[in-house]
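Why do we care about 3D structure at all? Because function follows from shape, and shape follows, mostly, from sequence. That is the central idea of this module. The next example makes it concrete: a single protein chain, its amino acid sequence, and then its structure expressed as tokens.
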Amino acid sequence: MSDNQTTVVVTGLGATTPLGGDVPSTWSALLAGRSGVRPLDWEGIEELPVRFAAQLAVEPSEVMPKHKLRRLDRNEAIALIAAHEAWQSAGYAFGDHAGQTVDGDRLGVVISSGIGGLHTALNSYDVYREKGWQRVSPFTVPMLMPNGASGLVGIEFGAMAGSHALVSACASSAEAIGYAIDMIRSGRADVVIAGGTEACIHPLQMASFGSMRALSTRNEEPARASRPYDKNRDGFVLGEGAAVLILESEEHARARGAQIHAIAAGCGYSGDAHDIVQPDPTGSGAAKAMRRALADAGLRPEDIKHINAHGTSTPQGDVAELAAIKAALGEDVARGLCITATKSMTGHLLGGAGALESLITVLTLREGVVPATINVDDLDDAVDLDIVRGEPRKLPDGPLAALNNSFGFGGHNVAVAFRRA
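And the structure:
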């Protein structure tokens, strides 16, 4: 475990996802095995090789004033929505919402995005090209910069211990949670608003991922397209959304009588140094991240009873991750735990995925039930570990821990360890 013995706990949860506009609706949909993947209705969509995605269930315009949205990129707006839910669920005050307060000098923010304000960048270029530079919004730069969401959340809640945005592709927001843990352990903050956001469902993004052959092309069955571990999986499904966790020192949380959902026990990182987009097929880098997470958390392999896998539904990635799990934990331990891949329902939120799946892992520990992986009709012959399918699975009572894995283009590997409170 880290030399600093400060225990970091999760006290607040917020999300807006393809499954629901908040945490309760998202969790309910996960347990019901409902897909958030739907056809796209864009003009000219028939020209694209992929014509579906996991779009938000609730539009930001349904919960945020239009005058405020005009100065926000979509990824910033949804980060603020998720942060507000998390903040209030942690029992803190904001505006007319009654609650406790926190010293701004002891409050930090770490909210990541893998891509940032893609919609703003592309739409602003269209304005420039069609109407001239004078019509480009003066808010373009703060709307497109990847740290925009983190900065805006820091301003919104008065966070002055530091506002950070880590960019590591699809591992970005898992890394954000790890950095938040370190901020609290090191004494730089008592409370950190941590998470991730992504909103880049756009024709260019669909075309670019499509040209890489990274996306599923199951256009006739969008809800069945994301199918981790299935023999006929053919790529991931692009999703959008935001998730935020309120982390704080256990001492601070108990002093104010906060509900503790789980313990954020530790985080591990590694780099594949293999390929800019393909994972190391041996899974050695991912295994290092998991082992380092266990060491940082002071856990043994046998303490892990569940893994929320990165599980994107790509032919190479799913199998490499399972190899990594066995290498990190040992064959016997790996065969004794249960694994789920919730991207089968949410799609892949890219830079927001690690935060959402960490949030789901926290709920899994708190509620004692693992959501099932959907669409696994014909299990890949190479899969020899216990994938939760069909119905949600109950976890045993008592002390236990879980891992959330997030891996990103560039060879970024992050594993976050959580313990039941």
